[in-house]
C-alpha cells in the first residue's frame, strides 16, 4: 500500500515537472520565434539601408557629375562672352570714330546725312555699353575682375557722379540730387568700380522715373557701415521680384516694356557690392517709387568672390 502511494506521488511529481518543463519549453519557443522575427526585421532593415545607401551614393555621383558639367559650361560661357565682347569692341570703336568724324565734318545740308551719323553713333554707343557690361560680367564670373583700391573720399565720388547726370536728367525733365552725410569719410575701394555701381543705380532710377520725377542719392554712416540709398518716385518693383531683379538678364515686369536695358546693370551692381563685402537690396516706398540700398563696411578689403 505504501509503495503504491509513493508511486502515485512520484507520477504526480513527474507530471508537475513535465507540465512545468512544457511551459518553459513553450516560453523558449515563443522567445525564439520573437528573436527570429526580430532578426528577420533587422536583416530587412539592414538590407534596406544598404539599398538606400547605394541609391544615395548613385544620386550623389550623378549630382556631382551634373555640377561639374554645369561649372564647365559656365566657365566656357564666360570665356566665350569675354572673347566675343573683346573682339567686337575693336571694330565697334572704329565705327564710333568714323561716326564722330561724320558728325564733325558733315556739311549742314542735307540734314539727313547728320541724322544718319547720329543714329550710327547713338546705336554704336548703346552696343558698346552692352559689350562692356558683358565683358565685366564675364570677368566677375571667372574671378578675373581686377580691383585697384585706393583711399577714397566716398562723398566726393557720389557728388561727382550725381553731377554727371544733369544733362540726362534734363532730357527726362527730372532732377537728380544728393544728400551726402559722410563728410570726409575715407574708405579703401576701387573708385572706378564704385562709380560704375552708382552710375548703374542712378541711370536705372532715371530710366524708370516719370516726367518731372526726382531721383535722390543719400549717404550716411550706420554702425561702421556705409549706407547709400538711391531713391526714385517711379513705378516701383513687384514684391515677388525684389530679389530676382539682381539676377543676370532679368528686368522687372513693370519696366521691361519700353525703357530699354538688358538686365545686366543690377547684376553688375550686386557683383561690385559683394566684392566690397556688402549687400544690396531693393524695396518699395509706401508713397510710391523704389529705393535701392547699398551697405558695405568702412574697413573693407575689396575682393572678387570665387
Please tell me about this protein's structure.
- With 306 residues, this protein is α+β, with helices and mostly antiparallel strands.
- It has two domains: 1-144, Helix Hairpins (Orthogonal Bundle); 150-297, Heat Shock Protein 90 (2-Layer Sandwich).
- Helix content is 59%, strand content 14%.
- The chain is built from six helices and seven strands; from the N terminus they run ααβααββαββαββ.
- It has helices spanning 2-105, 111-142, 154-164, 166-171, 191-207, 265-275; strands at residues 150-153, 175-180, 186-189, 214-222, 225-231, 279-284, 290-297.
- The strands form two sheets. A five-stranded mixed β-sheet has the order 2-4-5-7-6.
- Strand 4 (214-222) and strand 5 (225-231) form a beta hairpin.
- The radius of gyration is 38 Å and the shape is elongated.
